[in-house]
Amino acid sequence: MCATLGPAAAQGDTEAHVPFQFSTLDTVRARGYVICAASRPTPGFAQVNAEGLWSGFDVDICRAVAAAVFGDPSRVEFRPLSGESRFAHLALGDVDLVVRNAPWTMTRDTAFGGTYVANSFYDGQAFMVPSSIGVVSAYELENLTVCVANTGESLRRVQSFFFSGQVAYEELLYEDREDLAVAYRIGLCEAISAPASWLHSIRRTLPEPAAHRILPERLSKEPYGPVVRSDDQQWLVIVRWTLFAMINAEELGVTSVNIESMLSARTPGIRRLLGVEFDAGTELGLSPTWMREVIRGVGNYGEVYERYFGASSGVPLLRGQNALWTNGGMLFAPPVK
């Protein structure tokens, strides 16, 4: 089924507007909600409470897509999937997008029928230590035991880091994240090395999260982002620009709190983002004001980050690379125009 294109396509602008061959949007609308998936519950990113309600950074990305399509962020279903099955379920249409997948690599982006739409979270392997040891940089680590997963890349990065500094240390190897967390919690190691997002999730489970520090240095680059099927350009663009709308909103100072007053702003970028004087939706099969609904229903990127990783979360995680490019980070989105 092909989605209806806007007037420009009807006039033969085939270079700018290629007909969509498969419409996830039509399927989602007919179903009445968006189905999102992640590899497994990860505190801060995706967790479920006793009532079965999901929350977290990644969950809000899904809710934002629902707001884009329906104007209602609650019209979403969230499913945890194992790492072995995530792309298969996506290819079969069992889920509409995967938000907490594996880091973006060329192989994952080209070999399994899925496409990463944009970076939503910049991650990387780091170290976590008890604040009591007085260390504020990974370059201060020495003569201590480090818990690390016994996987090729994670272990090699730790070995390379300490070798380059000619620093003595000991390794304590485990199979997976749960083992690392247990060993660190009971004091078998003074430091733990894993992706910063993992470390943050582990820290949230500790008796005194504030007594532990994730050090700022990164041993790798591991960008995460939503993944959609490769056969639907329309859906890819919708999910991509949902995230871009949230990033642009933060840069422009548009929030879920001030959005009504911003409708009368005179700044061109704000007026285009909120659909006051620019239609960013019709050619995608969405409302001309769909970006407005995303911000109203979920908030801008900074609001979502603060909700789950800021001071109000109780377990803050410095934004670092996930800060806006204007604040020294890597978060950047093309303008709406």
Task: Please describe what this structure looks like.
There is one protein chain. By secondary structure, the protein is of the alpha/beta class. Helix content is 35%, strand content 16%. It has 13 helices and 14 strands. The protein has helices spanning 7-10, 24-31, 57-70, 86-92, 106-110, 152-164, 177-185, 196-205, 233-252, 259-262, 268-273, 290-297, 301-309, and strands spanning 34-38, 47-48, 54-55, 76-80, 97-100, 114-116, 121-123, 125-130, 145-149, 170-174, 191-195, 212-214, 222-224, 227-229. The protein has a 5-stranded mixed β-sheet, sandwiched between helices. Strands 4-1-5 form a 3-stranded parallel β-sheet, sandwiched between helices. A two-stranded antiparallel sheet has the order 2-3. Helix 3 (57-70) packs antiparallel against helix 12 (290-297). It is globular and about 60 Å long. The relative contact order is 0.15. It comes from Pelagibacterium lentulum. Residues 33-262 form the Solute-binding protein family 3/N-terminal domain.
